[in-house]
Design goal:
Elements: H1 22-37, E1 43-47, H2 54-64, E2 73-77, H3 89-99, H4 111-122, E3 128-134, H5 137-140, E4 151-156, H6 161-167, E5 170-171, H7 179-190, H8 192-197, H9 199-208, H10 213-225, H11 231-245, H12 253-267, H13 271-280, E6 288-289, H14 290-297, H15 301-313, E7 318-321, E8 324-326, H16 329-342, H17 345-370, H18 394-417, H19 421-430, H20 432-437, H21 441-458, H22 461-477, H23 481-498, H24 501-517, H25 521-530
Parallel strand pairs: 1-4, 1-5, 2-3, 3-4
Antiparallel strand pairs: 6-8, 7-8
Length: 531
């Protein structure tokens, strides 16, 4: 803490293997120097195609200049090029504000107010802000500090031209590695003796990888895990795989090279690891825990951990922190393609439903700890092979929700999209205590609307009444009394038809509160009495 303020340190670990990029590092150093003398913020956008090493360069350089920012560093993956939904500016700001110790109840729901609060908290401080995988100017602009003491580093495949016009952005476009540096990267991972024994094959392996750092690391790891193979054998395997993919490949040499390496590495995986790789792509969230991976793949905890270790050791999956895993966006696309090709639709459906059921069960157990006297949602029995988590304290349950918040909101949408209606409405209901404690209006309303649609498609009057009741309560909290009355009135006959007195009683209570606040005691009193 400095002057009572938190000092967040959110940078990922400095990459273990880093070569070259001297010109790019010097360009970044130059921008930092200009930032120190300027009154305005200087933003450097590191552009470049997928797999070229933008994030690696950004994180490596950020570690080098970290001491210039004694008040901390903030990092967020904006997921701009993931196959799922990119992170919204509100979601990113919410995370930043929490890292700066803003209590959840004091985080405003409006984006512009959040952005203003963020700028206020950074005013007069020296902080580094890294925005990774940005898709657009609109996604980035609300996240920019407003003080010259801060430096914002952005990675994107886009040039983000709008920032150059208004914010005076400095740009550092990066390319693939030079042939020499590509060989150096292979040398760092594989070792001097094997590289020196086959220099020509090393150069050819680098060329076949398109000099892309991601492809080079995957190829190098294959060499390390198969020390009996000559590098010429690896090159031959890559050539054979490239021939198989020629009909599917684009004319873009970088894309072709990296896709070839993905396919080559995938086909060398043990069958159970290959199955895990492709099933993990069915998760629509940005990352997942080991327990969620176990449910998705239908594996026990110890077994799935071994399989996840296999994938991370081959650079096909990234472990971001203890028990958390995610794909590089290009690998996610490739894994999803393999899932479509190598798993039947029925198998994919079963896998997704296992994961969604696991989220429902775990969220329900957390809800019971946080709000033990609320209406109980009936769910199917737990599968003992991949049991949900248990929580002994209120704080434990809230901590899990905070960690899984984005995944849970996305899980509601995924359940609705794949037609798994029971999970969509039940997950919506069991998340309500968390939403009420960690306010995000857009996420809350969006989840309720998805749950309502799922309940209606099922024809489940009890479920529809419960969600209409919650929509009415939320509108009452927002002081939208007419909307609250409308939702409670629609929920009332449904709850009566379903015979759920709990819902019926709270519908009357909600109507009474809205009429009271509209100064209509003639209508409020009868509903209070019935409630």
């Amino acid at each position: 803490m400095t002057d009572g303020l938190p000092v967040p340190r959110q940078l990922p670990a400095d990459p273990a293997s880093f070569v070259g990029r001297e010109t790019d590092l010097a360009a970044l150093d130059s921008l930092l120097t200009k930032s120190g003398n300027a009154r305005a913020v200087v933003i450097s956008a590191i552009a470049g195609s997928g797999g070229v090493g933008k994030t690696t360069l950004a994180v490596h350089w950020a570690h080098q200049i970290r001491e210039h920012f004694p008040d901390g560093d903030l990092f967020v993956n904006l997921r701009g090029y993931d196959s799922g939904q990119p992170m919204t500016p509100k979601q990113a700001l919410d995370g930043f504000l929490r890292a700066l110790d803003v209590p959840s109840e004091k985080i405003p729901p409006e984006l512009d107010v959040q952005a203003a609060l963020f700028r206020s908290l950074l005013n007069g401080r020296r902080m580094l802000v890294v925005l990774d995988n940005a898709a657009s100017v609109e996604q980035v602009r609300p996240l920019l500090p407003g003080t010259a003491g801060c430096f914002t580093l952005i990675t994107s495949r886009s040039h983000l031209s709008g920032l150059a016009a208004r914010e005076g952005v400095g740009r550092v476009p990066i390319d693939v590695l030079s042939p020499e540096h590509a060989v150096d990267l292979l040398r760092q991972v594989i070792g001097d003796s094997r590289i020196d024994a086959e220099p020509d094959m090393t150069a050819e392996l680098a060329r076949r990888c398109g000099y892309l750092p991601l492809a080079l690391r995957i190829a190098a790891d294959r060499a390390v895990t198969h020390p009996h193979l000559m590098l010429s054998d690896l090159v031959e395997e890559l050539v054979d795989e490239r021939d198989l993919l020629d009909a599917l490949a684009s004319d873009d040499d970088e894309t072709t090279a990296i896709r070839t390496v993905f396919s080559w590495s995938y086909k060398k995986l043990p069958p159970d690891a290959a199955r895990t790789f492709r099933l993990l792509a069915l998760n629509a969230g940005p990352d997942l825990s080991g327990e969620a991976a176990a449910a998705l793949t239908g594996s026990t905890g110890p077994r799935v951990r071994r399989l996840l270790d296999t994938l991370t050791s081959q650079h096909l999956l990234e472990q971001t922190r203890r028990n958390r895993y995610r794909f590089h966006d290009l690998l996610r696309v490739y894994a999803a393609e393999r899932a479509t090709l190598d798993e039947s639709e029925a198998e994919r459906t079963v896998a997704v439903r296992r994961m969604l059921d696991w989220y429902v069960h775990t969220a329900l157990r957390a809800r019971r700890v946080i709000q033990p006297n609320v209406y109980e949602v009936s769910i199917d029995p737990v599968d003992p092979s991949y049991p949900p988590l248990d929580f002994s304290t209120h704080d434990e349950a809230l901590e899990w929700y905070e960690q899984e918040r984005t995944n849970l909101v996305i899980a509601v949408r995924q359940a609705a999209e794949v037609g798994y209606e029971p999970a969509a409405w039940k997950l919506t209901i069991v998340l309500i205590p968390f939403f009420s404690l960690r306010w995000d209006l857009d996420e809350w309303l969006g989840s309720l609307q998805l749950g309502l649609g799922a309940a209606r498609r099922l024809g489940d009057q009890n479920a529809e009444a419960l969600i209409l009741l919650e929509l009415g309560d939320l509108h009452w909290e927002l002081r939208h009394f007419d909307e609250a009355i409308d939702h409670h009135q629609r929920a009332l006959p449904l709850s009566q038809n379903a015979g759920t007195w709990w819902t019926e009683g709270f519908c009357h209570h909600g109507l009474a509160c809205s009429y009271r606040d509209l100064n209509r005691p003639d209508k409020a009193v009868p509903h209070f009495q019935r409630a």
